[in-house]
């Protein structure tokens, strides 16, 4: 029997509608809407698409988005000043600086400048540390969204073997911390990992975030496993595909995310969730 699909599009839409209801309830009580500052530097086409989708999601969630778009020549000092202004602005609850930044801007420096209580990406070392200590505040959106998908399987990760493929700061590392917090036994694999296929074959939960099209083979998947594909890759024919060979893996897995329509929309609805949470923490 082929795997059940984890429909990120539908689950993210439910999440956005629930946020909208909460926002409307607060508006009716005379409160203001949550507000997200979206900062885009340069003209990376993929970043422009992500930022547009985030702003459209804000509209659907009832969140006010405020755009700050500057050319790639924008200086690091000017960006620091902008972030400091947004930190001070009582009308702004969340600050999102889209990555990657141009080469002359140090992303770590910018992330550390963001007030951790407005860091809706969950990238600030303070928020990362809170997650590592099992006392999360604002959690990185892609892994947090993947945990929401996992919850929808009804399977408790406690005691299960999870393999995370990829150790990036945005996906693999925080994903491992999320799964560990849910009491899974976590193995983090990366480009130096030996016998990767064997490690994946032992996993009840597989999360792939490496950015390599169809990298994870169907015969690496343990029968019945939950497969969450974070990858989004464009093939030479223009079509999108994930890091997992979907057609082969779905014959074996118990649950699997499609690409597109799996983890991607969850990242965006989780950003809306984080923006509401940041707003509620600042203005209970
Ligand atoms: N670039 C790729 N993914 C992300 C993300 O989740 N947040 C930000 N700010 N930039 C990104």
Question: What features would you describe in this structure?
Answer:
Residues 6-121 form the Tetrahydrofolate dehydrogenase/cyclohydrolase catalytic domain. Residues 140-279 form the Tetrahydrofolate dehydrogenase/cyclohydrolase NAD(P)-binding domain. Catalyzes the oxidation of 5,10-methylenetetrahydrofolate to 5,10-methenyltetrahydrofolate and then the hydrolysis of 5,10-methenyltetrahydrofolate to 10-formyltetrahydrofolate. With 284 residues, this protein is of the alpha/beta class. The protein has ten helices and eleven strands. Helices cover 42% and strands 15% of the residues. Helix 7 links the parallel strand 5 (161-165) and strand 6 (185-189). The termini are far apart. It has helices at residues 8-28, 45-61, 76-88, 107-113, 125-132, 141-152, 172-181, 196-201, 246-249, 263-282; strands at 4-5, 35-41, 64-70, 94-97, 161-165, 185-189, 205-208, 226-229, 233-234, 240-241, 255-256. A six-stranded parallel sheet has the order 1-11-8-7-5-6. It has a three-stranded parallel sheet with strand order 3-2-4, with helices on both faces. A two-stranded antiparallel sheet has the order 9-10. The protein binds guanine (GUN).
């Amino acid at each position: 029997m082929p795997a059940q699909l984890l429909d990120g599009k539908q689950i993210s839409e439910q999440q956005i509608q629930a946020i909208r209801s909460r926002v409307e309830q607060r508006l009716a009580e005379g409160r203001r809407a949550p507000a997200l500052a979206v900062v885009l530097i340069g003209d990376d086409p993929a970043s422009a698409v992500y930022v547009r989708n985030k702003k459209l999601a804000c509209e659907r969630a009832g969140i006010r988005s405020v755009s700050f778009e500057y050319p790639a020549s924008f200086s690091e000092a000017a960006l620091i000043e902008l972030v400091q202004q947004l930190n001070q602005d009582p009308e702004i609850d969340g600050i999102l600086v889209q990555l990657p930044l141009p080469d002359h801007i140090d992303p770590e420096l910018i992330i550390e400048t963001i007030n951790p209580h407005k860091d809706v990406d969950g990238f600030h070392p303070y928020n990362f540390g809170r997650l590592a200590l099992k006392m999360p505040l604002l959690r990185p959106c892609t892994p947090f969204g993947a945990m929401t998908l996992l919850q929808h399987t009804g399977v408790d990760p406690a005691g299960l073997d999870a393999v995370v493929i990829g150790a990036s700061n945005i996906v693999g590392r925080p994903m491992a911390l999320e799964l560990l917090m849910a009491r899974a036994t976590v193995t983090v694999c990366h480009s130096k990992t030996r016998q990767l296929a064997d490690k994946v074959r032992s996993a009840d939960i597989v999360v792939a975030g490496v950015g390599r099209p169809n990298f994870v083979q169907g015969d690496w998947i343990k029968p019945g496993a939950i497969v969450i594909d974070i990858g989004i890759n464009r093939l030479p024919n223009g079509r999108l595909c994930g890091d997992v060979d979907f057609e082969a893996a779905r014959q074996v897995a118990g649950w699997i995310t499609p690409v597109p329509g799996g983890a991607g929309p969850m990242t965006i609805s989780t950003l809306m969730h984080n923006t509401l949470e940041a707003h509620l923490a600042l203005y209970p």
